[in-house]
Every structure is written in structure tokens, then in C-alpha cells.
Amino acid sequence: MEYYFADRKSNILGVGSTDGKGEWRIDNDIETQSVDNRPAVELSLDIHFTTDQEQAVNEMAKATNFIMYQDEEGNGHQMVIESVDHDSLGHIHSIVASDAGNDLINETVGAYKADKPYTIADYITRFTNDSGWEIGVNEFPKNVRTLEWTSEESSLARIIAVAKDFDAVLSFGFEFVGTNLVKHVINIRHETAGDSLISFEMNKDINNIVTHLDTYDMETSIKAYGAVPESTDGSTNQDPINLIGYKWTDPTGQFVLDQYGFLHDTIAVQKYSRLLSNSNPNPTQSDWNRVKTFDSKSQAALLQAALADLKKYNHPNETYDIDLVNSPYAPLNQTVHIADENQQLFLSAKVLSIQRSRANHSVKLTLGEFAHETVSFDERLSELANQMSNISKTVQYYPWLRYADDDKGTNMSAFPTGKKYMAIVWSNKTSVPSDNPDDYAGKWALIQGADGADGVPGAKGADGRTSYFHTAWADDVSGQSGFTVSGGDGKKYIGTYSDFTQADSTNPADYSWALFKGEDGDVGPKGDEGLPGKPGADGRTAYAHFAYANSQDGNTDFSTTASNRKYIGFYSDFSSGDSTNPSDYHWSLIKGADGADGKDGVPGKAGADGKTSYFHIAYADSSDGKTNFSLDTPGSRKYIGSYTDFTQADSTNPDVYSWQLVQGPKGDTGPQGPQGPQGVQGTPGSKDVPFPYVQLDAPANPKKGDTWWHGTSLKDATAVQRYDGSKWVDDAIAQAVLYIKELNSIILNSAEINSPNINVPFQHVSIAGSGILSSGSLTLNGASYVISGNIEDTNGKPNGQIYHTEVNPDGLLSYITQTDGTTQMHTSRISMGVLELTDLVSGLGNSAKYITSTFNAHDAVDYYHKDSGLETNDVKNLNISYSRKGPNVTIGIAFEMKTGNGWVKIANIRPGYSPFNNDDAARLLGSMSYTGAACELYVSAGGIYIIPWRGQGGYAGSLGFITRDAYPINDAVVN
Known about the structure:
6 helices, 40% strand, flat
């Protein structure tokens, strides 16, 4: 934050900064706003100074001078310094300032009675006449009131009173052009008493909560008096208005107005009457009576004032001291929320004041108008929690899944083909699903229906937010071991929580954990022999088989792997092998022919919520669906996954599917077959012809001239030797020209290779000095030389990162990606004398954001130029030196003043050295002739300007800033 200090004429005297980078370091700045003191803003801050700066700080930040700044919400402020504490020993100059609008406290306005209804702008303009203030934002352009004031008061107090009568909120605004104040405005707005949606939690955002209760102002009935009515006959002995004789009935029955003008709270008296006892639990007498006076001018207005007062004080006063640790900024009068689950204390409160420090990066809120909040949960969640808490800790539950034609279980099947309804039942009896439709009654859900019209909108919730119930499973009570959100097979613990976010948390600490599969108990005593049961299943494993064809009988284009067919066939048995007989399968059409366009059908009856459910299927080779996941190619995949939702598109996330084994493991290897018949005897070779051996071990009984190829075949031979009659010696192939289709494991010595394309693959090679492996290729393709590959761990498993380095006539390009394999993380390019470096800042893929920098020969040298002996109408002996390296510019300047003119241009800026931001280059130059004198120096693209404090003497100094100009052409270059 930057604070601009100015004199009473708004001439800038200095600039202070809370980040320590400016000439004046600002610390302990506190900006205070409060509901009770609106529209005023207060500011206090400390300015650190050196011994040489002491005189300057006293002049810059003295009482009645201005401070100007712009806050984080874009509002401009002009503050008047009201008090100063100057500590010479501690080198701290402390000031207190208030909003410049408080100057209106120095204006006095008299009694006033409006002759007709006026708008709020009319009143404020009248009471701030000739003060320089104008109406800014006005959200009450047409509202009118007839108002009256009977005494004198300040102009500020009067306009605050006007705002109160209109239920408006005032704020002072200041419009600047550069650092020049051009307009003072008074903004008139509606109160924004909304919900900030900010919550503070005990032991997280709150250190401590102290609760105060008192009954000092409590009342259960009130005798109210209003204003004295105006006399119609000139008499002065008039009684104030009261509620005697006024007729009113409370529609709720809680409040009763009696014949004596007392307003009673019939519920509060039952709680707090002194007659309350075990024998008189609901007393109706002995109120806490209070007599109060209001400024109401009619009985109707007096009743409303009394009723509001009784509602406010019909219970003990409850206040809280809340020690906040973390306080984000919240606007005045906005609601925040406080929660202390240990005390079951849930409150809402209004922000009554804000203290904000930019230097300390802190916000302190004062809260008030506390109200208790009720935390409510969906009854279905409570019911589910109760059901879960009643689940036996040692019983395992199994899912039963069945499909049917309707919600009565008609034609129930274990497979979804052609079915519209699905039911899931959790059973603690057996893992084998029941085939009795009665066991699924009330559990059927439509998974494929006609599109219905939009459902009737439901009632809005307490805060308009949707709650979500989340479950996870794990192997221990902390949730850390074996944590998963995709299924509880084999898990012992279930975790749950509820919030307003749809996605499941992957943090086990967010869940409340409970055992739902206990350890096996000890073996109990042997019981009596039971009755014979009916024969059970034979314990064999059932297998589901799929096939595909282009005809309803399965005979046309039958296949068990290619799914691009019109019909799908299914059967189940106890054999893992798929049958190749089409008649074993039950066939269903899965891809119909395109029909002609027909007329729009009659709109169907809307469903319960107007949404269509969809059933989705996917295939994979693992129980979690993540290995060889596919939506449309079952092939030889072992698992089938399914789920149902209201979105037509199939999800590509394996976690949303429920997976089942449809292809069992490969069977054991069968016994070895019988030995085949002996082959035909080969033709004996000549004993004089050299024989070529191809084998790993040295041939037995070779003869001179035989050759031995080391390997299991000529294709993988690693060497060739010739027998010289006593031993094997290395041999070579002498040939002028070889026409060979493929060479493997070859070493070329002193060879010239004439080929436009060379490819050198490598596998799991170690990258020197990194401890990681890589697989990829080195290729030479025409004029391009490329090395590309992946990054692997020490076991050769890729982590997803890809690197690429390429040399071509344009230069060199090198990059490495993130683990997604596409988002470039670091990139470097050298091309035609320019080095370009790019780094990933955030995001992935199309959302990635980068920062890029370039470097060339100009960036490595220093440019220098000096102008000497210049003179203008305002300065003489003007010397300006320019130096630049890269974008960094330093200007040194020295001159003597001839006049005292302010904001004068003394030189044009030299091309190649102008600042990037027009108003970004400024500083205060010290005088070389007069102690404490100074001159403000501004450098912009339009030239060099000064604002001197004195019109005599010499000034000198230097100024640094950033430029985006092209490099200068004829300036001196220093390497």
C-alpha cells in the first residue's frame, strides 16, 4: 500500500509504502471503520525516518496536511492529519488522521423545517452548500421526506441525521487524476446487510469465546410514552402520548396490550415471573415491568416502538468476547458465523467495526448483534446414520443385484439386457442373490425411462445449499490403512461424513469411522445336531460369457472378441472357456438400423423428478477397472463394470463403476502329448566341404575351414569364428557391397554412413548423475537430430514425463513435460542469436499458464549516454546521464534552479530509456544548497519533470526503473 502526503494545496510532498520499498517506510498503519461512526474513516500510522530526514518528515506529515490512498476495494481516500507524535530518539513520526469529510464538522447549520417533501440529495446539498462536496452515487433518487430540525448542529451531524431518516448509508469518495484531487463526493447507498458466508470455528479461527449474561435491562412488559402532542388550543399542559385505549391484537398471541396501556409478553413472563414454582409452572402475573419514553408522535408508531423494545429485552442480555486468530476482510454490517461444537454454540453476528493494517497484513473485526443459529440435517441422513449405528458389528453384508421389466419384479433377471428396472438389496444371509422378487420389494429403481418434462421445483432449503453424504472404507479405525471411496469389498471399517461438496474427500481424517465387519469370534461349544438342510450349491464358480454377431441367431459374423456387431449374446455356466456355438447364447439387438424421421411423439408423463436415468457398462482387466479400461471393447477382458445415473454420456472414470468378474483365471497347463514319429534321415554331407555351425557352445570335432556363428540363429549371432585346424579364430566377412535387410548388434569401425534416416532406440538406460532410467530413441531424420524419451524409476516404470531435445538448422529446442505427458513444464529454445526460456506457472493442458523470457546479445551489455550543460527557462547546468542493462534503467541528474515554478518539464527522455509505466518513476531529490530542501523528480515517456520546494540552489540524485523501449542505437556500449 502506498500513502501520498500532500500539503493543503494538494501538492505531493512524499510517498510512503508499507512494503519498505519507498523513500518513507510506513508501519503499524490501522484503518478503522465502524457502523456507529459512518461515514467517517480513521487512520493511524508510523513513519520511520533517519536523522537526515527529520526535518523533511516534520514538513511532509504535519497537522492539517493530507494523506491520500486507494483501498483494496478501489475507493479513494483523502485523510486530514489531526494529531502528530514525533519521537526524535526512536526515529518514529506517528500520526492520526480522519476522513476529509470530517471537515464538515467545522460547518454549522441552523434549525430547519421543510416546506414540502424533498429527496435526500436535496437535503444533503442544502446542508453542505459551498463546501465543495457533490452528490456521487445516489440509490435514493426518488424517495422524499418532510423533515424538521429544531436546533443548531454541525453540517456533518445534520447529513448523518438525514441519512438515518431515509435508512441510507453515506460514504465520502475522492476522485483523483494521477495524484491530483479533482472531486469530493458524498455517496448515498442502501444498507448492504447481507451474509458474507464467512465462518469462524473454535480451535481453528477462534482462540477463545467468553460468554456474558446479564438481566440489567430485561423486561417482560413495558409501559410506553411518546412525544407530547402539539396543542390545538394554545395550552401548554399536555400529557405525552400513551397506549391507553389503543386497540391492537398480536396475530401470534404472544404479546397482549391491556387496558392500562401495558404491553405484555405472555411467553417471557412464564419463564421469568417471580411466581414461577413447581406448583405454578406457567404463571401469568408478576412481570418485569419497565416504563420507557420514545419520540413517537402517534399511538401506532408508539406501539411499534414498544413492541421492538420488548422483543429486544424480553430475555437476558447475552454478549460474547471472541478472540479471532484469522480474520478475513468482511464489509461493515455483513453477517458472519461462529461455531463452537464443544459447547454446541452456533451464532450469527454482524460486523460492527473493522480495523485493517496493510503493513501487518491483518484484519480485526468487532462483532455484535449476536443471534443463535440452528444447525439442521437432512432427516434421511439421520435415519441412515441410525441404521448404520444399529448394524451388528460382526455381520458381513452382501449386495444382491437384480433387473426386471417393472417395479414389481416381473421377469426378474441377473442381467440388464432389455430391462428397465434395477434393485439392490444388502443381505447378511448369503453372497448368492435371491431369485424371489418379494425379497426386492420396494427397492426397484427405473434405470431406463422416457424423457419426462421438467419436475416441479422443490422448496428452497434453509440456505439454498444441497447437502451430500459421503462414505469410504478402510482396514483400520483411523481410515489410513487400505483407504478407498470406490467399494468396501473385504474392508472392516466404514467412514461417513456430510457436507455441501459433491466430490468425496480423499482425506481419511474427514470421515467418522465405525467397525462394520468384526474379527472372527472364538469357536463356541458344540451344539446339538441340527435338522438336515436341503442340498446346497455344488460350490462351483459361475462364468458369464459374451459373444457378438450380425444376426439374431448369432450365425452371421459370430465372434467372441470383436464387438462391432449389431447383436450381443450371453449365457452363464461353470466353464471358463467361451463357447463357439451361437445357439448356446441368448441374443439381443444392441444396434438398430437408422429409422426415418417421424413426427414428434406425444409428451410423456413427467417422472418423479423429470429426469431420465441411464445404465452404463464398461470393461477392464482388474477388479478396480483401471487396467485396460474400455467402454466399447469387451474383447478378452475379465471384468465388467456398471453404474446408473441421469447423464447420457458414459463416464471414463473407472471409480464410478461396480466391477464383477466375468472371465476366470487361466487354467493349469495340460499334460505333455505323445512323442511324434522320427523324421526322415538327412543327406550325408561331404567331409571336405566346410560346415557352418550356428550354436552357443563350441562345436565338437570341427574340421579345418568350418565356421561357428555364436548364437541360436543367424539373426541373433554375436560373432563368427573359423577353425584353422587347431583352434577357433575370429573371422570376418569380406565383401565390397552388402545388400542386407536388417543388421543387429553391429559395431562399425572407421565407417562412412550415407543415410538420411538413422534410428537408435534405447531401453531403461541410466541418465548420468540423476539416478533415474529412461527409454526412448535417438533419431537423425534429414536435417533434424532428435533425442526423445520418458522418465522411469529405478525399476524401469514410467512416471508419465516426456522429454524432447531437437537440433535443426533453426537452432535447438528442449523441453520436459509434467506427468500428464503433454503439459510442457520447462522449455528452452536457441534460435538465431536468441535464447528463449519458458516455465510452467500453474495448471495443466489447455488451462496451463506460462512465463517466458528471452535473452540476446543486447541484454548482456551496458548502454551509456550523457547530456551535459543543458539549460531551460527553469534550470541551468543540467547534466543527465543514462545507463541501461537489459530492461533496467538508471538516470543520474544534477541541475541548479532558476525559478520556483512547479511541475515543469526540464528535458525530453532519451529514446531507449523511457519508463514502462508512465507514472511509475518518481523520487525526491535532496538539495545540495539548503538543508531540508528537496525537489520531486518525475520521469515519464513524455519527458522529465520537477516540483521544487525552493526556487534556488542545486539538486542531484539518481532514479531507477524498468523500460520496455527498444535498445538505443548510437549509445556507448560497455561489455
